[in-house]
Specification:
Layout: H1 16-20, E1 40-45, E2 48-53, E3 60-65, H2 77-82, H3 84-98, H4 102-108, H5 111-114, H6 117-139, H7 143-146, E4 149-152, H8 156-163, H9 169-194, E5 198-204, H10 211-222, E6 243-248, E7 253-259, H11 260-273, E8 279-282, H12 295-305, E9 327-328, H13 340-349, H14 357-367, E10 370-376, H15 381-391, E11 402-406, H16 412-421, H17 427-435
Helix pairs in contact: 3-6, 3-9, 6-8, 6-9, 8-9, 9-12, 12-13
């Protein structure tokens, strides 16, 4: 007689001591959630006891990381107070890699200094990985045991590759810092040589059906699609004329990057000839990320990834490990990285290519059937973007689904309990899986 009804997979188990304790995630003895190996069930079959591994039909889970713009002075404080020993080790590591007291800038500012890309980008990435390490050390939550995919928005892709086991944290942090310095230098050079102002502007449409014609009109207006190898015409334009769709964030939001004057002209053109009026919002960015102006950063990353790791003890190993432990989604293709060589190429090109965030979410949601999404890192921008696309769709929301974010120690317990509560088999899923063993 086969087992019936929903069966909980003990992937996230609460030990009795945790259940009896009144301590929460910000105490010295926090709630500890331990992943267990896949269950083995025993079934009477032709007079013999048969041991069968429970098929892994958990709702698929993606962990995602934020990009620039979520930084704020003091964002490390809750983590330093809740987990002083763990965070102090990481702080020393961060400052050693970048070569100065970045931790002081993060904690004490001023904000204008933290907002500079060479400070903001490594600060955000390091904070995201700090949270991952705390989850691993204090809650026995390992990414490879609890996630099927990792991905990150722009800068966040570097954190996703660390969490997925492709690049060591120190190597990734070093690349992020050098990349951000190259961004700043390229922007300064464009300003000195050509004048003008450079940055990023978000365009938000009121309806999803407006986005495709909006993107088509922009590409027609600027005269090229990409700064990558497929379209070389972008190199023929001076920086003052260069504009690119930097991000496609959702079904109603894109971000333009490049000359602010050129972007203003483009927006006026769209409003006059396209028949609708997208809302334009200037972003707090000191460089036009993902535009052709950022091309010097591509060479910096290519050179760094051509060598071995710079981490002590790994000097004879390639800087990229492939495959990693968890499938990671590329910003450029919105699909998994397929090889070490492709990963290096796409990660370098990402500096001047469009971040296909919406396509990445659609791919995981519709093709890969991801039902649980966990944002790790400062701010709620990523969670809100993902939530609007997959987590608030009325009848399409299923049992075993959720969109969460861990930005503060107080949120850890809620998120891990949410994962535990949604980690189960439905009746039909369990019966189908069991029948396959007959």
């Amino acid at each position: 007689m086969p087992l019936r009804g929903p069966l909980r997979r003990p992937a996230l188990a609460l030990p009795p001591s945790a259940l009896l304790s009144s301590n929460n995630a910000i105490t010295k003895t926090p709630l500890r959630i331990s992943p267990l190996p896949r269950s083995v069930v025993v079934r009477q079959r032709r007079g013999h006891a048969t041991h069968l591994p429970v098929p892994d039909t958990r709702p698929k889970t993606a962990i995602f990381f934020p990009g620039q713009g979520v930084q704020r002075v003091g964002m490390l404080t809750p983590w330093l107070e809740a987990f002083p020993s763990t965070t102090s080790e990481i702080i020393d590591e961060i400052d050693s890699v970048v070569g100065y007291k970045l931790s002081d800038v993060i904690q004490n500012g001023p904000g204008k200094d933290l907002n500079l890309s060479p400070n903001a980008q490594p600060a955000i990435m390091a904070t995201s990985i700090m949270i991952i390490r705390i989850l691993e050390k204090h809650f026995n939550f390992r990414v490879e045991d609890n996630a099927h995919f990792t991905l990150g928005h722009s800068l966040g892709e570097f954190a996703a590759l660390v969490a997925g086991g492709y690049i060591h944290f120190q190597d990734s942090l070093r690349m992020v810092h050098k990349r951000a310095e190259a961004f700043s230098n390229a922007t300064r050079q464009a300003e000195e040589m050509y004048g003008g102002e450079y940055g990023m502007v978000a365009l938000v449409s009121s309806k999803a059906e407006h986005l495709p014609p909006l993107c088509a009109a922009i590409r027609e207006f600027v005269g090229y699609d990409s700064a990558g190898p497929k379209v070389e015409s972008a190199d023929d334009w001076s920086p003052i004329d260069q504009v690119l769709i930097a991000n496609v964030n959702s079904k109603t939001q894109i971000v333009l990057s490049g000359s602010i004057e050129r972007i203003k002209t483009l927006v006026a053109h769209v409003r006059q000839f396209l028949g609708h009026d997208p809302r334009a919002v200037r972003l707090k960015s000191d460089s036009p990320f993902h535009s052709p102006i950022m091309k010097p950063a591509v060479g910096v990353l290519q050179q760094m990834m051509a060598g071995n790791s710079m981490v002590k003890g790994r000097e004879n190993e390639d800087i990229v490990t492939f495959p990693g432990k968890v499938t990671c989604i590329s910003n450029v293709t919105a699909r998994p990285f397929e090889s070490r060589e492709q990963l290096k190429d796409l990660l370098a090109r990402q500096a001047v290519e469009t971040v296909q965030w919406w396509d990445s979410i659609k791919y995981l949601d519709q093709s890969m059937k991801v039902r649980r999404w966990v944002g790790i890192g400062p701010g709620y921008v990523g969670r809100n973007l993902v939530g609007k696309e997959v987590g608030m769709r009325g009848k399409d929301v299923i049992k075993g689904a959720g969109v969460w974010a861990i930005t503060d120690p107080k949120e850890i317990e809620e998120v891990l309990r949410g994962l535990e509560e949604t980690d189960f088999y439905e009746d039909d899923e369990w019966q189908d899986a069991w029948d396959r063993w007959d």
